Each structure stands twice: as structure tokens, then as C-alpha cells.
Amino acid sequence: MHSFFRRVWTYRFHYVLIVPALIWILVFKLLPFLFATRVPFIHFQLHKGIIGSEWAGMSNLTKMFANPAFRSAFMNTVLIKGGYILICAVAALVLALAVSALRSRKLRTALTTLLLVPYFIPSIIFAYMALVLVSSTQSPPLSIQGLVWGDVRLFQPMLILLEVLKTCGIPVVIALAAIGSRHAAVRQREGEAIPSFVRMNVIPATRAITAFMVLQLSTLLTTNFELIHLLNNPLVRSVGDTLDIYMFREGMMGLNVSGAGTVWLIQFIVQLLLTGLAYFLIRGAFLKDLFSGYADTNELQDVQKGGRIVGIAVSVLFALIALVPMYFLFIHPFTVQSNSGYSLAALLERSNFTLYLVFSMAAAIAGLLMTVALAYPMTVPDLPGRGLYKGFLIAVMLMGSGTAMHEYLLAGSLGMLNTIFPTMLFGILTVIHAFVLSAIFNSKYADLKQQASAEKRGEMRTFFSLFISKVWKPLLTLGMLQFVSLWNSYYSSFLYIANKDRFSPITQIWSLLSSADPKQRIPLGDPLLLQYGAIVALLPLILLIVFRKWLTSEVLLGEIRRL
């Protein structure tokens, strides 16, 4: 015990550093979560609250499993997420191998940047473009017969392909980094024959993609709510309802808080177990594939001419597909006249750009500070309580991201509904960024940290002169991604704010598209919505270009849980 407390005192700076972040977690995550665990076991009544509502025992759980709508939503979630994981993995592997065969490093960088562009376009804009492109009456380039998004046979496959197009750039970059790591390692062994393409490219890419699949399985019961919410409709509800949609309809629209809370608790428990399993699998088998310490594509060796031709063909094909949303967002809408009666200037005037820009930046900066504080203790291998601390953070990571039922109830109890504050307060912290930042540091500079410890340098001095000085680039990039996530999300503003005049810029698109008043609604296919969407999406895309050099595979790992 004396040795234990002596080590605690030695690393006291680490414990003090995390106190502000832990207080925030306690107030906005842990306490609401603990109260919410009671919701599935009560007959929740709004005027009585969680504590005052009557005890229901296991009746909510029994009703949930007996409800055909829940069973359908559960199966749809597994099918959609499972299909996405499989198809995205295959597409990313093919693309990564194709791009790795290209000779030009600049061309590889340009292609990977282009593949990342759809991810930086807000989901609601992406979904809206998908609606317009396959519309039987509004599609500019196609002659469509029938309601494509109303066909139960086509809905899930099209949704999966749309999600793959939007997000596959991330696993591609991760796989390319693994290939680059293998090539760099071979280059260091002078005099040895260069292994085959399979050993140099296929095997490392496959291992990296497998790690991506493992991480995605940890979110098996979560889907992209914002994408599905706009595309889902009564004609395809039997195949389009997922658990997230089901909880929203039951809890937020139907006021069946206990029913939604029961689904939420099951979702949390299952994904906590899957996340723990994924953590140990990644740490034990794939950590070096994901955190290699090498540049993403700088070290790639040349391949045979035939491989280059195939690589160019596949890369060009996917690049053209990725250019489609760019064209229909930034070019086509500005070549067509709007008949909506609105003007773009009027929409921009009422869209609260400055307010949400300032608050999103403030939340991202606060998130950076908490990320640094939470990450630094994980750079000490023998820190007392390190394993317990990491397990606690894994649990916090699954407690909600600003749109869970218990967070909504907390916002209501604090009088923050119909304000911007819940959107920003609950969206400040992304726990996985702390894991990513510490892993980046440990994979490259663990020996320097041990050296500083052996030399008895002060922990505060080591924190600023070593840790911050080495991770400031990925840290700023993680902050940029957090800002983009807040800026692009429409659901939190839609959830917490009733006054449409206070909606975020991106939520204004949903409001104009779904308004019950025909005079305030802009019809599907009118170019004005995409013109406005192009302006809203321009800022994230500018940030993508500015930060592209620092947007490494390791940093992008922090986005996998958002997919």
C-alpha cells in the first residue's frame, strides 16, 4: 500500500489534470445516465419525473420483446449495419489496393481527399441529393419510373450503398496507411528481396480493414439516424425502421419514455460488451496495424505496369462516382432557376450562421481541452488505476452523445430546452478522441516519456514540453473533426429547439423541406435548398482541404464510431 500511494503521489499531476473533465462527465453524463437506468423499470409520467413515477418491474421489457415493431427495428438495424460493414470493407479494400498501385503520391493524395469529401457533406444534404437523384419527377439526369425510396426491396440495399459512398474514404485511408507502414518497414531492411504484392499490399490492407470491421461491430445496434430519418417513409417502414428511429418515434413523438428507455438500455448493454470485446481484440491483434507511426502513402513502392493500369481504372471509376455529389451540390443547383418564392439571401439572413459558428468553435475548443486532459494519464503504463480509468471511459463513450432520452430530460430539468446550450454542452466531449490521442503518442513517443520519467523531470514540464509539443497537430485535427460534427448535425438542434427561427443552419434545410405549411415549404427538387446546402457544406470542405495533411489514418480512427 505504501508503494501504491507513493506512485499515486508521483503521478498526482495526472489525477489533478482530469478533475475538470471528470466533473463535466459526472454532471452531464454519469448522473443523467444513472437516473435513466431507472426509466425502463417504471411507468414514466412527465409530471412525476423519474423518481416519482411508479415502479413497473420487468413489464416494460416484456412488452418490448412482444412488440413486433421492436423486433422488426432490431432486425433491420442488424441487417443494415451488418450489410454496411461487409460492403464498406470490400469496397475499401478494393479501393485501397487500387490507389496503392498508383505511382504518383500527389495523385494518391488527391484521390483519397476526393473519397473523404462525401463524409464532410452533412448527412441531411447527402440524403436530400439521393432523394432528388432517383425521383420520378425531379431527377435531373435520370428517367426514373416509380418510387425508388418507397420500394421495400430496394430501400435497404440503396441505403447501404449510399452510406458506403459517404464513408468508405475513412477505411481506405486506414488501409493505405497500413500498406505504407509495411513498405517502409521493408525499405529499412536493406539487401532483402521485395516481397510479393500480396504480402506487401493485400495482407496489411486486409488486416487494417478487419480492424475497421471489428470497431464497427462495436456499434452494431447504432445507425446513421440523420441519413435514415429523411429517407425513411411509411411505405418502407417495415424495412427502414431501425432502433434509433424506433426510440425517436416511441420516446420523442409518442411520449412512451419507458418504452424508449428500455430499448436504449438494451442497446447500451449490448454495445458495451461489443465495445469491450473490440477494445481487447484491437489491442491484442491489430494495434500496430492502426498505429504504425509511418506516413500514410509516402513509402509505397512501385508495382508492375498491369497493376498500375488496373489501379488507375478502378480509382478513376470510384473518383467519378465520388464526383457526382460534388456536381449536384456545387454546380447543378446554380444553373437552374428556383420557383420557391424564397431567395438565397433571405435564407442566409435567417440561418443563425454566426451564432452557431461561434458556439460550435467554443464547444470544439472545450472538447480539445478535455481530450488532452483525459488522454495524458493513458500515456503512463504503470499509472495506478489505469485499467479502471480506461474501462470507465469506454462506458462513458456509450452513455450518449447529446441526443439520448436521459440527456433530453436533463436539459428539460435545467430549463435549457429551446436554447442552443444543450446542443453544445452535450456535444463537447468525444471520449474516443482521448483514446486516439494517447495511442498516437504511445505508438511514437513512449520511449521519450519513459526517458523523461527516468530523468525525474516534472510531470507538468513533461506534459507541455513533450506531450503537447508532439500531439498538437493531431489534437487540432481532432478538434476540427469535432467542429465539423457539431456544424453538420441537424438532429440535436431539431430535438432541443422548438422555435424554427433558432434552428441551426443545417436544421433549416429539414425545416424548409418538411414544413406542414405549404407557403413555408420548399418543394422537393427545387434548386434553392441545394444552393443553401452548398453554402452550409462549404465550411467543412474548406477545413478538409486545410487539414488534409494532418488528417492521417490514426486521427480518422476517432470517426469510426460516428459511421
From TrEMBL:
Bilayer topology annotation: Multi-pass membrane protein
Could you confirm whether the keyword Transmembrane helix appears in this record? yes
Answer whether the UniProt record assigns the keyword Transport to this protein: yes
- Quote the subcellular location field of this record: Cell membrane
Top-rank lineage group of the source organism: Bacteria
Q: Which UniProt keywords are given for this protein, alphabetically ordered?
A: Cell membrane, Membrane, Transmembrane, Transmembrane helix, Transport
Gene Ontology cellular-component terms for this entry are: plasma membrane
Mind telling me which residue stretches traverse the membrane in this protein?
12-35, 82-102, 114-134, 154-179, 209-231, 262-282, 309-333, 353-376, 388-408, 420-441, 462-484, 529-547
List, alphabetically, the InterPro entries matched. Answer: MetI-like_sf
Q: Where is the signal peptide?
A: none
Supply the name of the protein. ABC transporter permease subunit
Q: Write down the species.
A: Paenibacillus ginsengarvi
